[in-house]
Design brief:
- The protein is α+β, with helices and mostly antiparallel strands.
- The protein has 14 helices and 19 strands.
- Strands 2-1-5-4-3-8-9 form a 7-stranded antiparallel sheet.
- A hairpin with a 4-residue loop joins strand 11 (294-299) and strand 12.
- The protein is globular and about 80 Å long.
- The two termini are 40 Å apart.
- Mean pLDDT is 82; it is low at 151-155, 246-275 and 413-429.
């Protein structure tokens, strides 16, 4: 048996001062870098002074490259915006060679989580406690799925009819493999009629919808900017856009048989949420502060959790955080996530106006404000709204990921903060935030939406926790225990480290 192809990387990392690469051959890097450098230069020219803001908020792209696009092999990987420690911007690429090009479409199937694990690992390169050796070690063990190395189970062969017309025949064990057959069909047709192709997909960003792109060769250099902005009409691209219909299976006949036919032929974690999420929250004043200006609310009955971290001093912060949780305590239940999120946003806007006016009327004119992070759950879907540097983490399949990004001058890169080396252990010196409830006449909230999977754990916390604990330490605690045990362990860790600020955590679990 051939040794599985190893995943390598190339590009910039915040912890390092220049380009770094591991396990990627020169022929791949030369072709890839030449295209990427030219595309980046073109996007800078097109966007002008707006380039940096667009780059920092552009999404991670998953890609598959047919044989001949970047050397003789096919390739698959992820491309993420990044920067080195002296402030030079260039993306980070994680990639692996694919021995069977016709298997590339299977990597984009929702039942294959190879891209998910690669994205999570790429994002870990932006963390404060990043360790290059550990990162490289973990990436080295991220092998492609077995079906990529061995070929897929469906036997396919090209045939000609009596008239000489091209045809494809797929041998399947049963009809549940039909979606696999269409994946195989995609691979065969691309390989035959568009051999030097590239596949691109993203879960989207603030400016780009969830998208899938098929392109002849690599995206045109002067059209690369569309991968940053979502403006697909850019010059250099003759593109046809299609919006996929939302399809649902209609059961008929035997319900059991209909249900079986509706199952995905590839294994995946069900995204249906449990009937009830369980949670536990704790807030402590810490070891240096006299007042606890944090506040939190748990409303598992309607699927709402929130942490607020007040600011302003002289009890003003306590007033602000308490105003937020009191308003959310009166929030009615909702059966639609969109309406729930709109209602909560409206509530926070009202609190913002009240706090803004209260600050204007105070003798000192001081800001009376608070950060906030809110988690909402309806059915199998969640939404998170936030302003400031209170955070939401998700622990899934053994990995912890920060879902929010800090609203701070150093917290905007791809939704994760990047600190220079001298600041990595001194986040308390960087307490400037750019958004908060009550800090301005108009509140600007960020929002994300995502599915819940069985076994997911969510952590909402004030910055008092991440001042004392890194993502890896948080991840270790979230591995085991119920919501109370995990919350208590997180608080204990912060207290052991000195708890220089108020510390608030809520652990929410999908059993």
């Amino acid at each position: 048996m051939n040794r599985p192809a190893q995943t390598g990387f190339y590009g910039k990392l915040p912890a390092l001062g220049d380009f770094v690469s591991r396990r990627l051959p020169r022929h791949f890097i030369d072709n890839w870098d030449q295209w990427l450098q030219s595309a980046m230069a073109a996007s800078r020219e097109q966007l002008g002074i707006a380039w940096l803001d667009v780059y920092l908020t552009s999404p991670i792209w998953r890609f598959g490259l047919g044989a001949g696009v970047c050397g003789p092999s096919a390739w698959a990987g992820v491309l993420m915006p990044s920067v080195d420690k002296v402030g030079r911007y260039y993306p980070l690429t994680l990639a692996a060679p694919v021995s069977e090009p016709q298997c590339l479409p299977f990597l984009f199937h929702p039942g294959c989580n190879w891209f998910d694990t690669l994205e999570t690992l790429a994002l870990s390169g932006l963390e404060n406690d990043f360790d290059l050796a550990e990162f490289d070690r973990e990436l080295e063990n991220r092998f492609l799925p077995d079906f990529v190395e061995e070929g897929y189970d469906i036997s396919a062969s090209a045939r000609s009819s009596g008239s000489g017309k091209f045809a494809l025949h797929f041998e399947m064990e049963n009809l549940r493999q039909s979606s696999d057959a269409f994946m195989g069909l995609s691979g065969c047709l691309l390989d035959r009629f568009l051999p030097a192709y590239s596949l691109w997909s993203t879960s989207g960003s603030e400016h780009i919808e969830t998208s899938f792109l098929v392109c002849e060769g690599l995206p045109p250099i002067d059209a690369f900017v569309a991968l940053m902005t979502g403006s697909w009409e850019q010059r250099g691209w003759v593109i046809s856009t299609r919006r996929l219909p939302g399809l649902s299976l209609r059961n008929s006949g035997d319900p059991a048989k209909s249900s079986e036919m509706g199952r995905s032929p590839m294994p995946q974690n069900p995204s249906a949420a449990p009937q009830r999420l369980v949670s536990h929250g704790i807030s402590v004043v810490g070891k240096r502060r006299k007042l606890n200006e944090d506040a939190f609310i748990e409303r598992a009955d309607i699927g709402l959790w929130a942490v607020a971290d007040g600011m302003g001093g002289h009890q003003a912060g306590e007033v602000a955080s308490r105003a937020i949780v009191d308003a959310l305590a009166a929030q009615p239940a909702a059966s639609d996530l969109e309406e729930f999120a709109k209602s909560v946003a409206s509530t926070l806007q009202r609190v913002n106006s009240e706090l803004w006016e209260l600050g204007r009327q105070s003798a000192s004119g001081q800001i009376i404000g608070s950060t906030v992070v809110v988690l909402l759950a309806v059915g199998h879907r969640c939404a998170c709204l936030w302003a400031g540097d209170s955070r939401l983490y998700r622990h899934r399949a053994g990995r912890t990921e920060q879902l929010t990004h800090d609203h701070s001058p150093i917290g905007e890169l791809s939704g994760f903060e990047i600190l220079a080396d001298e600041k990595r252990t001194e986040r308390e010196h960087c307490n400037i935030i750019t958004r908060a409830v009550g800090a301005d006449s108009e509140l600007e909230l960020d929002m994300i939406k995502f599915d819940i999977s069985e076994g997911d754990t969510f952590l909402l916390c004030s910055d008092g926790l991440d001042k004392e604990a890194g993502r890896i330490e948080i991840e270790e605690i979230l591995q085991t225990g119920d919501s109370r045990e995990r919350a208590e362990s997180l608080i204990a860790l912060a207290m052991d480290r000195g708890a220089r600020d108020n510390v608030t955590v809520i652990v929410v679990q999908a059993p």
